């Protein structure tokens, strides 16, 4: 009955660890070593310099020097933005778009500056040779676990790069061994740096740089990789976007997530999606977030590995255990969401099908495929996502009205539309989860997609059950206080919705008695 999990997938291995236990069937792939290419390049540069010094000096024709690296400030025009065609303004900001800085909402990340952290771009550009040589040396000697002088030097090299558009572009132009070295260094800093392990704009900048470079080069840190033989696979879940498999052996089951290749998703696109999710997932660990166990890559497939939970999803669990304390489950989900939001991270796909149940009776959030960093001012790709009704039909009951108002997919000639997910849209979706948990009904179960798209922005919402003998009251435990919370989450104005942190202070959450055992994974 209990949920079991592979011994060799007990917990995600540290990116600083290169050893495995003696009885483990899991073997990390060897880390990338500095190649002769780096040494050869350094010697060539030195040789070239010597030759230049010995040669007769020639009069040089004055040339126009490169403009100094642009320092970012509060001028929004200097921030990399999506193109005019892609630019999407959230509905709740549209009214203030032309009247200066939009008014702040408790859901929004404070804009301290458009520079992601206190770093001044150097006019002469970064010392790329020093950067590559340093990360190559660290890689060869093994990254230390403790913060040291080399790490401090490394951040001094990275900080101005991530604070300048020009230098940032140069960073993303790296390929091959050098790109892999930079990827390893960024991941190490995210784990070992005293401040990068916490929330903040600086962490966002480093994490987004890792995501962008990894996606562009189709590379991941070597510490993510797991090497084991995939034998029999059993399909657990299929959608137009992903396949979820169960594999392993009794007592050692794990799940494999694979993005599907279809006419709209190429092999390269599927791999980039997997890499993006892997990096976000690895760098977000919480008791109420499904653990990330690593990546398994074969010649024909790229899998994201996670524990196998026999109790299945929240929706499955409520069917088999209807008398469970539902308030505790909702608090679990809210705690996981609050963790994401405290790290400037928007989940963007909150629904019972993406919430899994541990054998301890605790709920964990999963599926970061649509997630994104909330701070779009940091040098990053546009803060938009695409919604394709053919690929993600099940997401519409959970979409906030401001999202649906922007999609307008029914009248559009295009299938996919650009939308903006926010903390507030996550909270709206959470309201739908609370509704389903305490009523046993799926939101808008009798609505078509077209009716949802047109009705929700106009104020349509699921109604509170009127019959006092309904299962919502007699079995699920719905109360007036809980319904009030649901309505707050479903507020039409995103700024009027509570935050996940606010919800955790609600009396019916605070007063819950929790006797469940903590989550532990078998060794």
TrEMBL record:
GO terms for cellular component: cytoplasm. Keywords: Kinase, Transferase. Pfam families: Pkinase. Residues 1-121 are annotated as: Disordered. GO terms for molecular function: ATP binding; protein kinase activity. Residues 67-79 have a biased composition (Basic and acidic residues). The keyword Kinase applies. InterPro entries: Kinase-like_dom_sf, Prot_kinase_dom, Ser/Thr_kinase_AS, Ser_Thr_protein_kinase. Residues 1-23 have a biased composition (Polar residues). GO terms for biological process: signal transduction. The keyword Transferase applies. This is Kinase-like protein. It comes from Coprinellus micaceus (Glistening ink-cap mushroom). The lineage of its organism: Eukaryota, Fungi, Dikarya, Basidiomycota, Agaricomycotina.
């Amino acid at each position: 009955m209990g949920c079991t999990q592979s011994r060799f997938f007990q917990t995600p291995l540290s990116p600083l660890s290169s050893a495995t236990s003696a009885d483990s069937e899991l073997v990390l792939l060897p880390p990338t070593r500095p190649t002769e290419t780096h040494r050869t390049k350094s010697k060539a540069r030195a040789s070239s310099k010597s030759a230049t010094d010995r040669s007769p000096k020639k009069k040089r024709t004055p040339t126009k020097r490169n403009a100094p690296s642009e320092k970012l400030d509060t001028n929004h025009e200097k921030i990399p933005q999506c193109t005019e065609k892609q630019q999407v303004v959230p509905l709740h900001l549209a009214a203030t778009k032309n009247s200066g800085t939009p008014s702040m909402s408790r859901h929004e990340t404070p804009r301290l500056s458009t520079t992601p952290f206190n770093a001044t771009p150097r006019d002469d550009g970064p010392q790329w040779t020093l950067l590559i040589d340093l990360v190559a040396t660290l890689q060869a000697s093994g990254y230390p676990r403790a913060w040291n002088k080399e790490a401090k030097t490394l951040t001094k090299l990275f900080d101005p790069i991530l604070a300048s558009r020009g230098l940032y572009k140069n960073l993303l132009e790296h390929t091959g061994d050098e790109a892999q070295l930079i990827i390893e260094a960024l991941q190490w800093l995210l784990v070992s740096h005293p401040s990068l392990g916490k929330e903040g704009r600086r962490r966002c900048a480093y994490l987004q740089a890792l995501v962008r470079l990894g996606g562009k080069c189709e590379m991941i840190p070597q510490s993510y990789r797991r090497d084991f033989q995939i034998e029999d696979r059993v399909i657990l879940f299929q959608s137009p976007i992903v396949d979820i498999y169960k594999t392993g052996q009794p007592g050692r089951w794990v799940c494999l997530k694979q993005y599907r290749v279809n006419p709209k998703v190429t092999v390269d696109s599927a791999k980039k999606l997997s890499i993006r999710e892997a990096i976000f997932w690895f760098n977000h660990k919480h008791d109420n977030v499904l653990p990330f166990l690593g990546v398994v890559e074969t010649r024909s497939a790229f899998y994201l590995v996670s524990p196998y939970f026999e109790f299945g999803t929240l929706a499955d669990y409520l069917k088999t255990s209807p008398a469970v304390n539902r308030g505790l489950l909702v608090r679990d989900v809210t705690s996981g969401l609050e963790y994401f939001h405290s790290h400037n991270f928007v989940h963007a796909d909150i629904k019972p099908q993406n919430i899994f149940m541990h054998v301890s009776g605790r709920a964990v959030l999963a599926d970061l495929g649509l997630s994104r960093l909330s701070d779009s001012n940091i040098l990053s790709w546009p803060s938009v996502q695409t919604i394709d009704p053919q690929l993600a039909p099940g997401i519409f009951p959970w979409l906030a009205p401001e999202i649906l108002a922007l999609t307008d997919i029914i009248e559009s000639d295009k299938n996919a539309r650009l939308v903006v997910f926010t903390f507030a849209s996550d909270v709206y979706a959470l309201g739908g989860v609370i509704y389903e948990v305490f009523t046993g009904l799926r939101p808008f179960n009798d609505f078509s997609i077209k009716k949802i798209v047109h009705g929700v922005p106009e104020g349509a919402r699921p109604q509170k059950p009127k019959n006092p003998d309904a299962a919502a009251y007699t079995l699920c435990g719905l109360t007036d206080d809980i319904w009030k919370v649901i309505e707050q989450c479903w507020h039409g104005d995103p700024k009027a919705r509570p935050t996940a942190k606010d919800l955790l202070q609600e009396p019916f959450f605070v007063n819950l008695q929790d006797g469940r055992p903590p989550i532990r994974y078998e060794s």
